[in-house]
Task: structure prediction
Amino acid sequence: MITHPAYPSEPWTVGEKGLDLNVLAQSESVFALSNGHIGLRGNLDEGEPHGLPGTYLNSVFEFRPLPYAEAGYGYPPSGQTVINVTNGKLIRLLVEDEPFDVRYGELRSHNRVLSLRDGVLRRTAEWTSPSGHSVHISSTRLVSFTQRATAAIAYEVRPVDGPLHIVLQSELVTNEQLPPTTDDPRATAALTAPLQPEQHSAHDARAHLVHTTRLSGRRIGAAMDHTVHCPADVQTSIECSEDTARLTLTTQLAAGQPLRVVKFLSYGWSSQRSIPAISAQVEAALALACATGWEGLLADQRRYLDDYWAGADVDLEGDAEVQQAVRFALFQVLQASARAERRPIPAKGLTGPGYDGHAFWDTESYVLPALTYTAPHAAADALRWRHLTIPAARKRARELTLDGAAFPWRTITGEERSGYWPAGTAAFHINADIADAAIRLVQATGDEEFDREVGLELLVETARLWSSLGFHRRDGQFRIDGVTGPDEYTALCDNNVYTNLMAQRNLRGAVEAAKRHPDQAAELGVDDDEIAAWERAADEMLVPYDVGRGVHPQAERFTDYECWDFEHTRRDQYPLLLHFPYFDLYRKQVVKQADLVLALYKRGDAFTAEEKARDFAYYEPLTVRDSSLSACIQSVMAAEVGHLDLAYAYLGEAARMDLDDLAHNTGDGLHIASLAGAWIALVAGFGGMRDSGGSVAFAPRLPGPLTRLTFSVLWQGQRLCVVVTPAQATYSLGGGDPVELAHHGRLFTLRPDRPVTYPIPPIEPGPRPSQPPGREPGRLRPRRA
Amino acid sequence: MITHPAYPSEPWTVGEKGLDLNVLAQSESVFALSNGHIGLRGNLDEGEPHGLPGTYLNSVFEFRPLPYAEAGYGYPPSGQTVINVTNGKLIRLLVEDEPFDVRYGELRSHNRVLSLRDGVLRRTAEWTSPSGHSVHISSTRLVSFTQRATAAIAYEVRPVDGPLHIVLQSELVTNEQLPPTTDDPRATAALTAPLQPEQHSAHDARAHLVHTTRLSGRRIGAAMDHTVHCPADVQTSIECSEDTARLTLTTQLAAGQPLRVVKFLSYGWSSQRSIPAISAQVEAALALACATGWEGLLADQRRYLDDYWAGADVDLEGDAEVQQAVRFALFQVLQASARAERRPIPAKGLTGPGYDGHAFWDTESYVLPALTYTAPHAAADALRWRHLTIPAARKRARELTLDGAAFPWRTITGEERSGYWPAGTAAFHINADIADAAIRLVQATGDEEFDREVGLELLVETARLWSSLGFHRRDGQFRIDGVTGPDEYTALCDNNVYTNLMAQRNLRGAVEAAKRHPDQAAELGVDDDEIAAWERAADEMLVPYDVGRGVHPQAERFTDYECWDFEHTRRDQYPLLLHFPYFDLYRKQVVKQADLVLALYKRGDAFTAEEKARDFAYYEPLTVRDSSLSACIQSVMAAEVGHLDLAYAYLGEAARMDLDDLAHNTGDGLHIASLAGAWIALVAGFGGMRDSGGSVAFAPRLPGPLTRLTFSVLWQGQRLCVVVTPAQATYSLGGGDPVELAHHGRLFTLRPDRPVTYPIPPIEPGPRPSQPPGREPGRLRPRRA
Result:
């Protein structure tokens, strides 16, 4: 946990004053730059010290063994792990005869600032070498949103006093030595030096390296070029070998004289293109970047972000920490997805190797709802990626003796790579989550082409899956037995409410899509009988209810289970999965993360207000929030049932997950879904936005500390803006056609440039529910207004 | 499957005519000799060809990696695998200048006979070498029941015609090269040449080798000595190196002149004793064996077996195949256990490396019921071994946050080594199975010392486990959720009827034992409150019942599940677990092996006759018998409910499991539990013997083909003999006190030497239940009378 005030709360920046080597890995994640295609961890320019060096390209991975103590049918034979590709961030500095290394000499000042508006990471440092020579160093790094293959660094060094000999080495380094992450020697063998050299070349200030992975057959090109500015004479040399390219600049600078280098980087990869094609590709990207120039890249970056923030920004009054956190969150969600372009959005984005770089249901259930209303092109691209993986998902379904498509629980390429099936393959709800995301995107954007080409087939194939996964009991009831819902402290349960309700939406969505596009549906083999079967399954879907307790069991029998002994669970025994066997967790009433409560939010149309209040009150004391996916959902539902202070506490936790390292693993990469969850907590929670059923409704209501909440959503291509104060909400529309909306259940039509304002009705919640002892939500630091 | 008539049906032998190299591995298992301490696979004397060379010592194993694709709390960090120790069976023969190898030259005849009365394996062969020289070879091999550390081989070779140069090499060979069994290079590394040399010595005709395992620290000594008989001159030399000792005998024999060698072997191992102690131990055992001499060992072996058969034999009229099979079964059960002496009885005995040499619940649930009534000292020893492992089981219980002792699902040393917890650790019923075996042993033998020193603590610790594993719901009901019953096609279910009923017996058994031995119970910390809690848990134990269908669900909700699609399951898709995911098997009505039906047998006192008939009829069409543990139990219950032909068909399958290689894996070792099951099917099935509730009852009834069934059981040290014919049953008692018995529910007192005869009442079963298509029970070959 980051226990020092690392990142002061600024509205549009995340900054770090000083350099605490104990949280180096965490800061590398927080300061990671990415455009969804390239990801650079926030490693220091000079490479060392580091928590974990990291340069990632979306979908560049290596296979590794996936061993089983006892093998089973259908277990994935091998795993996939994101790999650290050629590091182009390196700019090493020699001051007189001593390398700049913050661990030696004296670091007189060190500041890093991530600018959320500019999309750059700025660093300044003043350092005195062990022999007493002082230099001022500054660097600015960007990964371009507008040129997908491009990153760039502007680096400057100035002697503080006295003339100094300065040597800069700007490098490309492949197969960096990494800290060990596994004790399996076969995996280590596969992941140590995973890249085989194929080509290297250097001339003038330019070099490139081409490598390929051993097993997965990914060919990777990395190239660099430089412009150098210096009032003094600079000697330049370049050299290159299989795994290293190095430009060396040597000069003598007077006090205050700057040596300034702009390093342009480009990356490309392919599983099909030849060595010449890849090297040409990265050289071309480099040529474009050089032609654009540093200032041009900076300006393009700012324009891209100005456009994004215009539609996406959430503005708060009353909580500077959350204000900063939600902008950081939106920035990172964009970084994870903006240029992913039909590649997955991994759980950690491209900020670290956590979860092997895999994508999960997080994408569709947490990230896409935010992207759909803020950067819909990126949401569409992510679903187009899923669509491209339908052949693998169909094959998996056949392997599982099911119809349709069974999308993987975790993957890079679209093939199932989960090594523990009860909390992997059995979590079939991911298929309904994908369908839900497709339904939402079509509804929010009105994108008919997407609906026809992508959405329809996703819905049809997943509906077919549900049709074969469940069955009608003799009395008609449609049951889905033996699957795992979102809560990973319960597995292989019968008729999980979330799963069944989401499957119901999936089936109905498929029916509607097939009726919208009858010709395309017919091409997919859909006929009237199939549509009727989907309708019947949806209509007769079982939603278990515990009449005695007056609540919905998370799954059949759940509320009959023994309650977890929270009283005798020590605080250092969380997360529970590290201290108790799955066996014990699965069979007791203890909830890792919102599951039934997630259903209350995602399928709010299926519950009455009273049911929501009772269900929420029942599950709060059982939910330990050992997953970063929980707090935001609990925030949403706490707000809906009127526990605004509780909702606010959950919001704080969700928003500050990574900035305060609340899950103790930010060093492995950011929690992109939890970051998206900060947006969900604000917009769906305090904004009360709901989008089920073809329209948008709001039920805004602020917690005490927040005096104003302003957010926008993109709806049918228009910007719909909501300003909430404690007493009222004002809705306005940027242009286009009038929109039918609801405010706390009251329907109204919003017309362009005709804002309307409604008062916010009061709510009387029941007693505030308690949480398991020690698991009350909260931020680390006192809130500052 | 052995599809040639390999083993003609003889009542007291299992013989093989000719040598089919395609079933070599199977015959090595069938002809394995063991006394429970040493196990020698039936490899040819000359070592090659072989299916799998095997020499095992009970509990000599090596650790190996137990890898997990995704790790979890409480997963065993390493596995244990039985290892092939020093091979002392080798006697190689050179005829003129050509090695005797059945793959070359001409094998004019080859016969092997396992004598179930003599306890030896006899082999005769006539072979003509590629250059035309013929020899007659005979060998007799035994593993001594009376001298635990000893095996011996009498080997003789005679030229058929013309004088021949003959060389015999008698060897000890350590670290034999084995066929690969795993693709994990770490496991291969651990198990290739697992024995490190420590000492070797040879003089005269005697040699020994001492080795130790790398990780598990087992020190192993193997020694050999020889006597040589030959009318011609024999030159003798002996040599020895780290992994090999070799006695070489060279002679020239005239036609018909024999060279006869008796090879005495001894083995010893320890995890504590020093090199000198181990070498002395094996030399001493060897000295005793030599002093006893070959004829003496043979005579002792016969006496030991005569004594065993007097109490254990089952005599049949009407089915020669089953007659042979049940004697083979009883012989192998004895071989697996006779001298195990507080070491485990592995699932494969010491006949092969299957299941890594682990012991499972098979021991207590299948093997011990047979041993209790035929060789009670061996049953007691097996339970004493469990008792010795209580510290490990207590530690495991604590790790699982449970009270008492949690015995391992699979193990060699007593520590859990299961790598798949849903079908391993979660199968807690093994604890009740151990308790059940202890209750049965005390009841059958009246062994008070065992009861006090072993049984009590086993019962108390397992009762404590159940007490913490289950809980009383608000209405009092005692529930055991989230555990796995015997059926491995269902896992993590709630209130498995078998588990709950066996736990109930366990709890009540603990109450009674604590009351029998109040002082010892107090020493174990048992007080009145604890006893009362056990009684209450037993009294309020939930036994689910499906009122609508009028049957017991195997576990709660089971009968509500979708039925497996047997109709579209191809015959080559069995066993199902190799062709379908656990996910699908677990959530449907498909049963791998008797589970509820096992409860009907083991806890028959908890069901009415009508319930048994209905339940049996319900589960037959769902049970695919993909486990070798099923047929015998289905036989017992089919007999009880009156489906005698069906019971007879199941008996045939259980009895011929290994002789006909019905499970296609006899080559890895015999199915000791299924072999014991042949006894169970005859004695509990057609003999109708039941032993719940402190007394013994019989309800014999023969199927058409059987005209007489005679068996004995040892009860309170006396031999109780039952002779069943189609019309009547005669009971007689060898001596001792009168015994209270029941015949088809009619109570009577049986006095020594006062046989009584009762008629057998008729039974009218309902319609014969069907099995899943293609899974009807049956033997491979037509039955011969």
